[in-house]
Amino acid sequence: MENARVALLLPGSHAYVDAVLRILTAGVFPIPLDPRLTPSEQERILAGLAPTDVVRSPDELAALVDGLPEAGLPLGRPMHCTSGTTGVPKGVYSGLLSPDDAEALVAEERALWGFCAEDVNLVLSPLYHSAPLRFAMGTLLAGGRIVIPGPFDPAAVTAAIERERPTTMFCVPTHLQRLFAHWDEHGAPDLSCFRLVAHAGAPCPVELKHRLLESFPPGSTWEFYGSTEGQFTACRSEEWLERPGTVGRARPGRTLTTDPDGTIWCTVPSYARFSYFGAPEKTAAAWRETPAGPAFTVGDLGRLDEDGYLYLDGRREDLVISGGVNVYPTEVEQVLGGCPGVADVAVYGVDDPQWGQRVRAAVVPGPGGVTEDALHAFARTHLAPPKRPKDYVLLAALPRTLTGKVRRSELPRP
Predict the structure, then answer these.
(1) Do residues 167 and 140 touch, judged by C-beta distance below 8 A?
(2) Is the model more confident about 324 or about 166?
(3) Please, are residues 319 and 85 in contact by the beta-carbon 8 Å criterion?
(4) 254: pLDDT strictly greater than 90
(5) Distance between CA atoms of 352 and 300, rounded to whole angstroms?
(6) What pTM does this model have?
(7) Strand order of the sheet with strand 145-147?
(8) d(Cα 119, Cα 109) in Å, to the nearest integer?
(9) Which residues are CB-neighbours of 107 under 8 A, at least 6 positions away?
(10) CA 414 centroid distance within chain
(11) Is the domain of 349 the same as that of 213?
């Protein structure tokens, strides 16, 4: 079964994290996926990953791990999926690690975040995302425990903080906004139990960052910059105060460089390298040789100051980040293009005070036309909730360049 791949299409739980660890201990690669994916989305994604098994229920998960060893040293990373801007998601594949590399992978996370047996990790995000799963796994591997309140709800999270006294938490800015709004109305819990609050996934508004610093214990709050493919930086909030806007310096064992156009490249240790499963051309485009070793990019743009602090100038082209969830316009466009009455479509992000960005679609109706209600109904059937456009605008034609690319900057904004 070694090197096999198991797709996980069920909600996160304590059993889910234990299963991921046991699967990786056996040299098998779990593929965590959003259980809300529609059947057509599942079919499209799984076709390129060729899993040896697909698990959709707790009973199926229990049967799968029944014959596996107890959780020990993970021999690889979960195969999370990303589609970049090319449409169908691809699996980010670490390959089977040597024992030394596997030990180094665990040790790096433990050294950076200080995971220990006394830790209680509060899980706020769905565990099919890479960051919350990584923090939960790191906590358990260090002998700590995890708390999973369920789908994000400020009241439930507040109760969990009061009851469980967590020491660590990963969140996205939208979580913080909703928690602070709840606490403004109902009162904030005692937050002195936290030694680590790490946020990532989307730009953090300046006012929110200052409130984060004021609310949690000194030295406990961090921001990091990374992607499904790999981790780039980590930054204490106190460093951010000295250099507003930075996302920090390269993590240990990494080197950051930028091209003249701002494209960010990162060298990583051998245990942090990856390929795109079944996509050698995409893998080749993501990597290049540098004097410091092999470096990869995900197409993000930024700049480095004289002390090596990174400032992001833009996310990868066209990417929409809504509530910390990456939404790739090409994938959504491919689905909406199949809606009856749609002749052309462009999907993009617009500013949103709660979610950072929300998904919007500009649609050119075909013969017979299409209504906004019909588009919403089609999206509910074929797209998971984070990918569904919140609103639609109907246009006579999309603004395009001479080479046919949509001029997204010219699409209607609120």
Answers:
(1) no
(2) 166
(3) yes
(4) yes
(5) 21
(6) 0.84
(7) 145-147, 120-123, 168-171, 196-199, 221-226, 231-236, 246-250, 310-314, 301-304
(8) 14
(9) none
(10) 26
(11) no
How far is the C-alpha of 376 from the C-alpha of 353, rounded, in Å? Answer: 22
- Give residues with Cβ within 8 angstroms of 267, minimum separation 6: 254, 255, 290, 292, 293, 294, 295
Report the alpha-carbon distance of residue 100 to residue 53 in Å, rounded.
Answer: 28
The pLDDT > 70 percentage for the chain reads 96
- DSSP-derived letter for residue 96 is P
CA distance 234 to 342: 44
Per-residue three-class SS string for 325-345: EEECHHHHHHHHCCCCCEEEE
Q: Are residues 301 and 226 in the same domain?
A: yes
Query: For 367-404, what is each residue's pLDDT tens digit?
Result: 889 999 999 999 999 999 999 999 999 999 998 765 56
- Verify that 296 and 275 share a domain, yes or no: yes
Nearest to 164 by CA among 207, 118, 102: 118
Q: What is the largest CA-CA distance in the chain?
A: 64
Residues 348 and 366 placed together within one structural domain of the fold:
yes
Of 400, 340, 341, 396, whose CA–CA distance to 364 is shortest?
Answer: 396
Q: Give every CB contact of residue 151 below 8 A, 6+ residues apart in sequence.
A: none
Total structural domains in the chain? 2
Q: How remote is the C-alpha of 14 from its chain's centroid?
A: 20
Task: Residue 179: name the closest of 189, 192, 168 by CA.
Answer: 189
Q: How far is CA 370 from CA 240, 346, 388, in A?
A: 48, 15, 17
Single-letter amino acid code for the residue at 100: D
Residue 172 · residue 131 · CB < 8 Å: no
d(C-alpha 167, C-alpha 159), whole Å: 15
Does an H or E element contain 225, and which? strand 221-226
Task: Kindly indicate the confidence band of residue 2, based on its pLDDT and cuts at 50, 70 and 90.
Answer: low
Confidence band, pLDDT 50/70/90 cuts, at residue 85: very low
Q: Domain limits at 387? A: 320-410
C-alpha–C-alpha distance, residues 386 and 9, integer Å: 16
The bridge status of strand 356-365 relative to strand 342-352 is antiparallel
How would DSSP label each residue in 161-217?
Answer: HHHH--SEEEE-HHHHHHHHHHHHHH-PPP-TT-SEEEE-SSPPPHHHHHHHHHHSP
The last residue of a domain, from among 314, 348, 368: 314
